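Weekly modeling sync, notes
Attendees: AB, CL, MP (scribe)

Item 1: holo prediction request
CL wants a bound-state model with S-adenosylmethionine before deciding which constructs to order. AB pointed out that an apo prediction alone won't tell us much about the pocket. Agreed to run with the ligand included and paste results into these notes for async review.

Input as submitted:
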Amino acid sequence: MNQNYDASGKADMSGIYNRTDPVPYFETLGTLGYCIPQEAKGTVRALINALRKIRRRPETSLLDIGCSYGVNAALLKYDMTFEDLREHYTSMADIPRDGMLREDAQFFSDPYDPELEVIGMDTAHRALRYAIDAGLVDGGTTVNLEEDDCELTPAHRKLLSRADLILSTGCFGYVTNRTLDRLLECGQDNHPWMCHTVLRMFDFTDAAEALAAQGYVTEKLDRLTPQRRFVDENERKQVLANLEELGVDSADLEAEGWYYAQLFVSRPVQDARDMPLPSLLANP
Ligand SMILES: C[S@@+](CC[C@H](N)C(=O)[O-])C[C@H]1O[C@@H](n2cnc3c(N)ncnc32)[C@H](O)[C@@H]1O
């Protein structure tokens, strides 16, 4: 099979992002050891717990940018692992979509965190449709906030303004500070926190600056997190070249065949002062 690469040198995965069911997504990314949502889960859970304390209410709304088939919703609302999902969906490869949704109704019948509302945002309309039909996300939109001519209707604003926490895993790069800025415009009164996983070949500086202009502090977690293996040698070479150009040392990391990401947490200045990130993460 001919592999295509996007402008950043990443293998083009568009063929699995917008299918009528999640099987190809989990088959392909499972084979590549994709793990970023799982790696981010503990941090996101700690942020949700902290938000509950600071906002003195259990109901929490999470906006998942690039929600795909509802991956983070399954991890956070149903306490699944990415591996649970991979097994669940790849075992249903021969089942039609309707049957899969019936199986999902059983599989996702007992939420671990019923007070967590998840709103999905993804330009992949079939993936979002699946996440909604499976009951994984509580609502969603395919609006593309990267586009110049994207128009936010009152309904979009209502949906996007309710977030307490805005999350993205494996999506920064497809989305930029443009999307984050526009989301903050919608949710000005709610002062949502944010957590983004960002591959080391992408630069979060512009986003952090745009968020700072809106009264946000961005903190980068020290740890580096594996995301997935490279698809092939071409992808590895292109990504290593990109990193070198950015002055990022890939020795013992990407050079060994895996993408690495960093987690960025952005919060309003006062919240960041009241709840220092290291202690919030140490005592979830
Ligand atoms: C690597 S997948 C990550 C999916 C999921 N967050 C996870 O970690 O498993 C990237 C997702 O970003 C979505 N995406 C790409 N461009 C987007 C945009 N402009 N706005 C929202 N989602 C976008 C893709 O459709 C895809 O579902």
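Recorded for review: The domain at 14-282 is CATH 3.40.50.150 (Rossmann fold).
Action items: CL to compare against the apo run; MP to circulate these notes.
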